[in-house]
Design goal:
Layout: E1 10-14, E2 22-24, E3 31-33, E4 41-51, E5 58-67, E6 76-80, H1 84-89, H2 91-102, E7 105-112, H3 117-123, E8 127-134, H4 143-152, H5 154-165, E9 171-173, H6 183-221, H7 236-245
Organism: Zapornia atra
Keywords: Calcium, Membrane, Repeat, Transmembrane, Transmembrane helix
Pfam family, one: Cadherin
């Protein structure tokens, strides 16, 4: 609407009896998902735009939204200490901050809150966002890389979000684990441990065999064992004494 003043101010709304899975920003007309978890299919939303002139004019159109079940493993959940309706109104700013600090394209998959929808939208000061990041080649960024970078930029993200929400903002992000060892390194470590165990077992076997041979030698020959008996059961030490007496 090219008019100025109230005649040029457009407000958007979803016509009544629309699915509860969606909401709309009345100032920009941007449509948001409220809760589409576990749902798939096409939703038909009737959107109305109305100017604010004395003789209010309106226009309507149908928006078809197709929800596809995602099999991505790279979705990351962020938690903001803000009401869900406040987050939805400022979702464009949140997206801009995330893209600026992460240096990736960010797609906000879902915005939702715990508890019943009516209660959550009015009183619950916790909102969750599922996001996915894409690199310059439009490839999904691994979830662990996204978490790690979110954690590194946590303070900067919170500072920028405070400018948008005009209040203190806390962004809770699952801490990224330390870099894990590569499969090749793990295999080398396991192989080294196995070889060490085999070597120790071999040394124990050799030591036991040597001791057994020495013990056997001492029994049959009597060396280093003056109390050993001969085949007839007599003591070799007594034989030595008898020879000495003779």
């Amino acid at each position: 609407d090219p008019d100025s003043g109230d005649n040029g101010l457009l407000l958007y709304s979803l016509v009544s009896d629309q699915p509860n899975e969606f909401d709309i920003d009345e100032n920009t007309g941007q449509i948001f998902t409220v809760s589409v978890a576990g749902k798939a299919g096409t939703f038909y939303l009737e959107v109305q735009a109305a100017d604010q002139g004395t003789r209010q004019l309106t226009a309507r159109t149908t928006v078809n939204v197709t929800v596809d079940s995602s099999s991505s493993n790279n979705i990351v959940v962020m938690e903001l200490n803000q009401k869900i309706n406040v987050v939805e109104r400022n979702i464009a700013g949140v997206k801009r901050v995330l893209e600026d600090k992460l240096a990736w394209n960010v797609y906000i998959v879902e915005v939702y809150s715990a508890g019943s929808e009516r209660q959550a939208r009015s009183s619950t000061d916790v909102t969750y966002m599922k996001i996915i990041a894409f690199d310059e080649a439009n490839q999904e960024v691994p979830a662990e890389d996204v978490k790690r970078k979110l954690w590194e930029q946590k303070n900067n993200i919170e500072m920028e979000l405070e400018k948008i929400f005009l209040t203190s903002v806390t962004a809770v992000i699952e801490e990224a684990p330390a870099d894990s060892a590569s499969p090749e390194l793990i295999a080398a470590i396991v192989l080294g441990v196995l070889l060490a165990c085999i070597l120790v077992a071999f040394l124990v076997y050799v030591l036991f065999a040597v001791k057994r041979e020495r013990y056997k030698y001492g029994i049959t020959e009597g060396f280093d064992n003056p109390g050993a008996t001969d085949k007839n059961g007599s003591l070799k030490s007594l034989e030595k004494l008898e020879h000495a007496d003779n």
